Amino acid sequence: MNSGDTAWVMLSAALVFLMTPGLAFFYGGLARRKNVLSILAQCVIIMCIVGIQWVLIGYSLSFGPDTGWGLIGGLDWAGLKNVGLKPFEDYSKTIPHIAFMMFQGMFAIITPALMIGAFAERIKFSAFCLFTVLWATLVYDPIAHWVWGTGGWLKNMGALDFAGGIVVHVSSGFSALVMAILIGKRLGSENGSFTPHNLPYTVLGGALLWFGWFGFNAGSALAADGIAANAFVTTNTSAAAAGLTWALIEWKKHGTPTTLGVITGAVAGLVAITPACGFVSPLSAIPIGALASVLSYLAVTVLKPKLGYDDSLDVFGVHGISGLWGTIATGIFAEKIINEAGADGLLFGNMHLFLVQNLYFLACVAYAVAMTWVLYKVVDKLVCIRVSRKHELVGLDLTQHREAAYTVIE
After folding, report:
1. Which residues make Cβ contacts (< 8 Å) with residue 294, sequence separation at least 6?
2. At 66, phi and psi to the nearest 5?
3. Residues 365, 174: contact at Cβ < 8 Å?
4. What is the DSSP code (8-state) at residue 81?
5. What are phi and psi of 155, to 5 degrees?
6. What is the pLDDT along the chain (410 residues), one digit of tens a residue?
7. Is 123 helix (H, G, I), strand (E, B) or coil?
8. Strand, helix or coil at 355?
9. Strand, coil or helix: 386
10. What's the pTM?
11. Beta-carbon neighbour count of residue 151 at 10 Å?
């Protein structure tokens, strides 16, 4: 066991934990003032719900001994049974098994939180809580096992996802799209888009996400080593390239760049580099981030209006699309010279990895979309997911939580 590796992974877990409050401010600033507390409450309750679910069954289902066919872990580690203070060598030889469990638990927390932006301002809090625990158990945990768990079928095929491009961002992004379509548009959205109520909150949240992402990506090396350092550099480089690209697009199209555009672009770049960060060079991170910005910009400004869905805060456009591109990009730009445990991508003569990455995202998208549709229908039948028209007009802060974020109305 290595004390430096252990300290780095525990610090990284804390950084990833910080991302969920950061996400709360990022989304909260984009919402209308009458719904900002509901966004924060949803993020905080996820930290509680998934924090318990992960200890009880989530970690065992995701990373526990495979039950056969590489589809799901068993319940051998339920309640953290046999998850001790010594390393479990299938995952890491140098850190305590329980530290690895906690690090992965932070990923399990933020993934369903990402979806909040798609159905913001119109979901009942009780329905949200029920849907969250079901989605974490029946969507996140199986996909995590397929890709990262010992015996997972996609892992055995050689699929690469260093820190969760598919497991985290595509699974939540495409599920968010399903939720946005099924729950329907916000009242008044047909009259035009709603403006963010507090952009400084959004920039603060975006900065916290960027900061936490260093633990998210570099921590996934599970060691304080060169691969972690490479992931650290590629993470920042991709985010910078994407933020700059979005600004340039707006500058060219509208004459001025926006603060919201720059921070949104940076997040798109962070999403795209997530699956690739430990397998590609810093120079490759530049086109990965730049193209992520272009694709996400088109998804938000062209695809969304054309198809007419109300993804309130553009979860699908940023996380789903950029995560998808990052997964494909891993199959293009990966280099074994960067990480011997990885593989060469298409640019380095390996068509196989490119094909595996495409199969990987197709399988996970199909599963996440189908299961989210089923879960929505079940929860809606049990407790009715959408708030009443009156409650939506008043705002979720007052109707769901009996609180107001601001005491003075401007």
Report:
1. 245, 249
2. -65, 145
3. yes
4. T
5. -60, -40
6. 999 999 999 999 999 999 999 999 999 999 999 999 999 999 999 999 999 999 999 999 999 999 989 999 999 999 999 999 999 999 999 999 999 999 999 999 999 999 999 999 999 999 999 999 999 999 999 999 999 999 999 999 999 999 999 999 999 999 999 999 999 999 998 887 789 999 999 999 999 999 999 999 999 999 999 999 999 999 999 999 999 999 999 999 999 999 999 999 999 999 999 999 999 999 999 999 999 999 999 999 999 999 999 999 999 999 999 999 999 999 999 999 999 999 999 999 999 999 999 999 999 999 999 999 999 999 999 999 999 999 999 999 999 999 999 986 54
7. strand
8. helix
9. strand
10. 0.96
11. 19
Can you say whether the dihedral through the CA atoms of 392, 312, 306, 321 is positive or negative?
Answer: negative
- Cα-based distances in Å from 150 to 60, 105, 176, 248, 339: 11, 17, 28, 43, 20
Residue 247 Cα distances to 214, 264, 283, angstroms: 23, 10, 20
Q: Exposed e or buried b for every residue in 312-324, given b needs 16+ CB within 10 A?
A: bbbbbbbbbbbbb
Reading the block at residue 39, the tokens are 């966004």
Taking each helix axis from N to C terminus, what angle separates 321-333 and 282-298, rounded to the nearest 10 degrees? Answer: 150
Of the candidates 202, 221, 220, the residue with the CA atom closest to the CA atom of residue 210: 202
Count CB neighbours of 134 within 10 A: 19
- Give the integer Cα–Cα distance in Å for 145 and 147: 5
Q: How many CB atoms lie within 10 A of CB 200?
A: 11
Instruction: Note whether 84 and 164 are within 8 A (CB).
Output: no
The 3 state secondary structure assigned to 14-28 is HHHHHHHHHHHHHHH
Burial of 388 (0-12, 13-18, 19+ CB in 10 A): exposed
